[in-house]
Amino acid sequence: MNDLHTLSLCDIRDQxxxxxxxxxxxxxxxxxxxxxxxxxxxxxxxxxxxxxxxxAAALEAAGPPTPAQKLWGVPVTLKDVLCTQGIxxxxxxxxxxxxxxxxxxxxxxxxxxxxxxILAKTNLDEFxxxxxxxxxxxxxxxNPWCIERVPGGSSGGSAASVAAMQAYGSLGSxxxxxxxxxxxxxxxxxxxxxxxxxxxxxxxxxxxxxxxxGPLARTVKDAALLLSVIAGYDEQDAAxxxxxxxxxxxxxxxxxxxAGLRLGLPREYWQEGLAPEVExxxxxxxxxxxxxxxxxxEVSLPHFRYGVAAYYxxxxxxxxxxxxxxxxxxxxxxxxxxxxxxxxxxxxxSQGFGEEVKRxxxxxxxxxxxxxxxxxxxxxxxxxxxxxxxxxxxLAGCDALLAPASPVVAWKFGAYKNDPLTSYKMDVLTLSxxxxxxxxxxxxxxxxxxxxxxxxxxxxxxxxxxxGIIGIAAALEAAMPQLGMPRGL
Length: 489
Fold this sequence. Notes:
This protein is of the alpha/beta class and about 500 residues long. It has helices at about 10-15, 25-40, 50-60, 105-115, 155-165, 180-185, 220-230, 250-255, 275-290, 305-320, 340-350, 355-370, 375-395, 420-425, 430-435, 465-480; strands spanning about 45, 75-80, 115-120, 170-175, 190, 215, 260-265, 295-300, 400-405, 440-445, 455-460.
């Protein structure tokens, strides 16, 4: 049992399906691994040990898995913005510290229908606002590769739980890179599907036109299997695309080389600001793509440099609207005098929200205010369209784009805590994809030469071409050395 946690999701799924392992046995192995690693990394907000054991017993009592139960008996973790019936969902905020949802998010329901077992709710930056998981109310999550460094964010707890092998996969949310960036920093695979491919129903909103739920896992095939389970049309999400969902697992297994493919290198992703050791690892992966038969060509995204400004105006504007409901009357913590509604609102929001959340609410409210809407919000929306057009033009001549996922490796705690503008730039290589709504996959491409920390590279595709980027990533993964066990545990 001691080495069960080291298996891939697909391997443990196959052993469970063949009857070689029991769900309760696998759950106990993951709980033991979590108990051993959690004091060091603090990846979880709520451990669902009792619920996981009950779910495992129920699966065993019901008999062998059906064909629809693709994840039968497999323990996974969930970012704590996904509603779970009967299990508290906090968004890492004091505002929701006692919130217990009466229903499951669409993706959680899909996981349960597939036979997956929820092991824990993972830590994040408060309301998914951050790039390091340092703004959480409950804990500061450590990177399993070096516990003095951040795991990235906002899905840092999910990435850390996968990298530390507490569970076989996890679900995160990606508003400006919050799956791909922590996946890169923790040495995991993370997928942000096209906007509308996965339902947002039951996911606590940050920026509604940006948010996308997606998987984090140890291998491309594992992440592809998770995506196959959670993707699909949901009439409860008005932005969800009503279109067929391919078998992404088959896509991950089918492609053995990249012969005949044209892959673009966006010039703007490889310019000043990229750490030399990150550039070196990513360029080595590009050479691997060449050796597999791909043709590499340079492309340009002229409006890329406006991405950070446009994103933080638009996403903060949406956040200020979405978080208006947390007033102590409709949702959330309640503070202040019962007799004065204004003072009650003020006390509730002052005490319930952390510093970064307040900063973004203020920024978004300012951008939407009379006299500034046209000067900021309208211009940012126009830039968003231009960024999408840049991607469409680049992808018209390429099958996919290759680019670094983070300009640096995982940084030390507190490095940017008092410098929010620099912190915002940590998303510079990921957030343009959220502005465009296109799919992206972060793939580990090695350990940096100097720091010996993981480096991730993005594979970016056309809208709803998740099959394409998964196939390319799987071929690259098979041709490159694996990272091995995290060195910080």
